Amino acid sequence: MTYEPKSQVQQRPRHKHPAVQFTLAAAASCGAVTLTNPADVIKIRMQLQGELKKRGSHEVKYRNVFHAFRVVAHEEGMGALQRGLSAAYLQQISRNGVRLGSYDAVKTFLSGGEYNYVANFVAGGFVGAIGALSASPFLLCKVRMQSGDGKYKGSVWKALAEEYRVGGGVRAWYHGAWPSVVRSTVGSSSQLVSYDATAHFLHHTMQQPKDAVTTQLACGFVSSFFVTLAMNPFDVVMTRNYNTRDKHKYSGVLDTMLQTLRTEGVHGFLKGFWAHYARLGPHTILTFFFWERLKMEAERVLR
């Protein structure tokens, strides 16, 4: 955070106020996760399938994304596809409210208001890490709610209370947090940099207006592919750390990666990729689209 003289604070447009930016980002991401949470449930199930078992040595319950949807809906009911939605809302508010709500301010501070790839990359990674830490307790509950092993069947608040009681206090809420921070730092940088780079190219090279629906959707589409590609290995690591209560199973990010590589091979890091994209692709596109439209509306109403 930078110091601003009183006169500059007073002159800051109301739609640029941090509270407004946080609210817009949180609202956009909650709207997106409402539609994409079912794909997140499937992604979690597929990433946990055959955990630390050699390929071909375990039962394959979910053959592919579409088969997984059918199995979950048939065995657990359609409502199971929205498991963990309450935790997902809280995660999006605390993660993307912070991450997206502060990104413009951080990158402007680093770049002086000019387009700068390195500044955008650093800003994206920084706000991603902060957002991941703030959202970790809710992400922990969401993963365990969606895993299908019956860990949590009540509300997210009951889940947090149970973790506090069983895990020995507040620190239990951050079990698996560091893999999430690594995942979010990598993912946030690739997502925000690719989005900004695509927007810069379309506007300055292709002469496309920044506020056009097609421009915003195209930027979201490009960004969604790069962020899924960059994040999936770290997403597998994060999911497995959050889902286990055995603190000795994995000693950290590197140990999780090494164990996965030894027992499952490179394929282990690609588990759930298409389910991940089925969730993260639309979620990225919708979040950025809603976010851009909400910012435009806020600027119109609050100017």
Ordered list of secondary-structure elements with their pairings:
Layout: H1 6-11, H2 18-48, H3 65-76, H4 85-111, H5 117-146, H6 156-167, H7 177-204, H8 213-243, H9 253-264, H10 273-302
Helix pairs in contact: 2-3, 2-4, 2-10, 4-5, 5-7, 7-8, 8-10
Spell out the CATH superfamily: Mitochondrial carrier domain
How many domains, in number, for the residues? Answer: 1
Can you count the beta strands? 0
The number of helical elements comes to 10
Element-by-element helix/strand order: HHHHHHHHHH
Our Rg estimate from Cα atoms comes to 20 Å
Poorly predicted sequence stretches spanning 5 or more consecutive residues: 1-10
What is the second-level CATH architecture? Answer: Alpha/alpha barrel
Major sheet? none
CATH topology: the name is Mitochondrial carrier fold
The shape is: globular
The end-to-end distance, rounded to whole angstroms, is 24 Å
Percent helix, as a range, is over 70%
- Strand content is under 5%
The assigned structural class equals mainly alpha
CATH top level class name: Mainly Alpha
Average pLDDT confidence is 91
How is this structure best described in words?
The structure is a single chain. By secondary structure, the chain is mostly helical. The protein has a single domain (16-302), classed as Mitochondrial carrier fold, CATH 1.50.40.10. Helix content is 72%, strand content 0%. The protein contains ten helices and no strands. It has helices at 6-11, 18-48, 65-76, 85-111, 117-146, 156-167, 177-204, 213-243, 253-264, 273-302. Helix 2 (18-48) crosses helix 3 (65-76). The protein starts with 5 loop residues before the first helix and ends with a helix.
